[in-house]
Amino acid sequence: MMKEAGVSFRPVALLFLALLVALPARPQDKPPAMSESDVMQLLKIQVSSAQIVTGIKKMGINFQMTSDRERRFRRAGAADEVIAALKEASKPEATAGILEVHTQPGEAQVYLNDELRGMSSPEGRLVVSSLAPGTYTVRVSLPGYQSWQRSVTVSAGATANVLAPLAQSSPQAGPGTAPAITTTSSTASGIPIPDVKVDEVKFFESGADVPDVDKRTYQTVFPSATARQIYYELNLSWGKISSRIGFDLDSVWYDPAGNVINRKTHPSHVEPDWNGGSVHADNYGCNTAPCNDWTNPGTYTVELYVKGVKVATGAFQIAGSATPSVTTPSVTGNLKTFTMSAIPLPNVSLHSLKLFESGRVTPDEDKRVYQTVFSKETARYINWELYLNFGTISARTDWDINTSWYGPDGTVFSRTIHHAYAMPDWNGGSMHVDGWGCDSAPCSAWSKPGTYSFELYVRGVKIASASFQIQ
Q: Where are the domains of the chain?
């Protein structure tokens, strides 16, 4: 659509148009690099793809291409050649190098010179760009697996690839092998911190607010109808320490079938004046009951790790018949069930996940048609709608929702990042929407019939997943 008469354009956009017909500029006359808004403006006034590509090559860009930016540019009408030129222009300069780490399995933490640089994707890939040339110590850790470490050299203008296969810790606790424990017993091993040892692991239940130690009711059997957040409490004792000691306490949670249902990292520390003992607690579950995480009766297991070493194991029982889960959308079609887990944000819980189709403009809520079966002839953007509940929050809370989209063959074909936030005056609920597809149908993203799926992540934790059909 052409802009209306009288609309003024940014100087960079006008300079860009002038450059397309001007003689080659001298190096000292090189214009400023194009911003994201400059590119969007050129797309909106329908400058041809060839001209935009020429401008990108001549002027460069001052931003990095991401999947989220690619999605916005495509929605604004960017052709494949424009996207390719933007990706090429955003590559690091030859003075920097790139490190690409592949972990087996995925969702592992990657450290460079003992500095955490991120978590690998569910498929095991993490790319660290703009690294100064030199030798780095790469360390990969994942609860339940032995740490992996190796030195790698990064060269200017080149990509160094590292494959990090992780071996499971031995012995490995499997489903049902963890001992049934009382409120004061567990299995504990040596903790890899000087003068610190594990005393015991306990369990207690609560809502969103953690009770003080003297108000906790320790138990190992929780009714499924009333269980909300279930906490482990790790008690440590230590000898004489001269200064504060910080460490991460990693937990792996298993359901009765032995499947991993959650992994968490709890930053912990001990202080010299704590009189030789400390208590560390972390949780998994929901702020209200019944909780979708505790609908299956049986024995659940928690393993605790410090620096890749398993230091303790505990187990608890969920008793009673399965109870209704938190509200989820009604679905149609032969699909997998929507799954939702705890979201790693204080006082925030998941309520529902729905799907709808639309064009570039997202329709108002009352005009959305929720469904899970879409025609490949008419499907454009397929959007997820995530509804959250939250308790009392005193200030705005911001986070990113990362989406991995999978095709019928199980391979990832797109990743998007949606920035979300919640405000104290939103009356306890918020709605968040993001999607993938095309402005018009038929869309190449949905050309293959079959079952597609997606996973939602917040701060490296998978909070929800769902699937839908393209027919």
A: 11-89, 97-165, 187-319, 339-470
pTM above 0.70, yes or no: no
Domain 97-165 has CATH 2.60.40.1120: yes
Q: What is the pLDDT of residues 372-431, one digit of tens each?
A: 889 989 999 999 888 877 777 777 777 788 888 888 887 778 878 887 777 777 666 777
Q: Helices 36-44 and 80-89 sit at what angle, rounded to 10 degrees?
A: 160
Longest dimension (CA), the chain: 82
CA distance 324 to 327: 8
C-alpha–C-alpha distance, residues 416 and 445, integer Å: 14
Among the listed residues 235, 161, 224, 233, the one whose alpha carbon sits nearest the alpha carbon of residue 198: 235
CA distance 160 to 158: 7
d(CA 293, CA 275): 37
Q: Domain 339-470 is classified in which CATH homologous superfamily?
A: Immunoglobulins (2.60.40.10)
Q: How far, in Å, CA of 118 to CA of 111, rounded?
A: 7
d(CA 122, CA 455): 10
Direct distance between the N- and C-terminal alpha carbons of the chain, in angstroms, rounded to an integer: 32
The yes or no reply on domain 187-319 and CATH 2.60.40.3500 is no
The amino acid present at 313, given as its one-letter code, is T
Q: Is the dihedral of CA 111, 113, 117, 123 positive or negative?
A: negative
Alpha-carbon torsion 60, 64, 70, 71, what sign?
negative
